[in-house]
Amino acid sequence: MSAAGAHRWRLQLAFGLVAVFFVVELVVGLTSRSLALISDAGHMAADVVALGAALVATRIATRKDTTGRRTFGSYRAEVFASGLAVLLMLGVAVYICIEAVGRIGAEPEVASGPMLVVGALGLVINLISIALLRAGASESLNVKGAYLEVLADTLGSVGVIAAAVLVGSTGRPWWDTVVALAIALFVAVRAVLLGREVLAVLGQHAPAGMHPDEAERALSQIDGVVEVHDLHVWTLTSGMNVATAHLVTAAVGPGESAADTATILAQAADVMRERFGIEHATLQVEPSGSSACTQTSW
């Protein structure tokens, strides 16, 4: 069983808690006319998507492909779910900004009591979810992503509590709008950062923190390898990096023996796994001057 699968019950419990509270927070936010609550509810909706994607990913990872066409499996479902979370978070940020502009010059009544109660309850829910996911976060990147999402939402709950206290103590409802805009800005920034990661995966960029030139130099230093070409490295989904490369060996002269292909492949696989964290590397060994390989032009 994978690390994410072993902690699936933690994901399920956290998902249930967050999903139920999202509905409560949204309803109370609309009835109390609190933008801070509504903005935090939108952020929590992204948590629901993130946790749901983590749960789905643990199932999809072990699901057999019955079509024979998905040669890489369905691992990228997690990436598409993350993209949906990005759109949702940006939509919430835009909605809050529009509502805030509409409140300029107005003094809407904001019920600070329900805000404080729901904000405090949300903080408790987030802390419970953090405690549930912390154990698996160090073992599974899938669980870690959900853990960081809930951890960030804890700040939103703190913001709601602060807004309720300020509105209740000063009697000025615009504090609710100010805090809501702060939460919306925080959500938008996180959405953009997450969106960049999603686009990097879909664009098949090299994994973060790794440069292809470094991998090419490392492979070129293997005994018997004189050239490396057609090197490609990309991310299939979070925590799952893939690579392909052609390793050219020296031409064999009179009285010389060809380099041991099996040894070169083993050493190359070790380099990709130990130095670059790439478990799945498809490597091809070919002698110098071989006509069996044609380098790509793209």
From TrEMBL:
Cation efflux protein cytoplasmic domain mapped to chain residues: 213-287
InterPro entries tied to this protein: Cation_efflux, Cation_efflux_CTD, Cation_efflux_CTD_sf, Cation_efflux_TM, Cation_efflux_TMD_sf, CDF/SLC30A
Membrane topology, record value: Multi-pass membrane protein
Subcellular localization, as worded in the UniProt entry: Membrane
Chain segments annotated as transmembrane: 12-30, 36-58, 79-101, 113-133, 145-168, 174-193
Cation efflux protein transmembrane domain: residues covered: 12-202
Keywords: Ion transport, Membrane, Transmembrane, Transmembrane helix, Transport
Family per record: Belongs to the cation diffusion facilitator (CDF) transporter (TC 2.A.4) family. SLC30A subfamily.
PANTHER family on file: CATION EFFLUX PROTEIN/ ZINC TRANSPORTER, RE54080P-RELATED
Record's protein name: Cation transporter
Organism in which the protein naturally occurs: Terrabacter tumescens
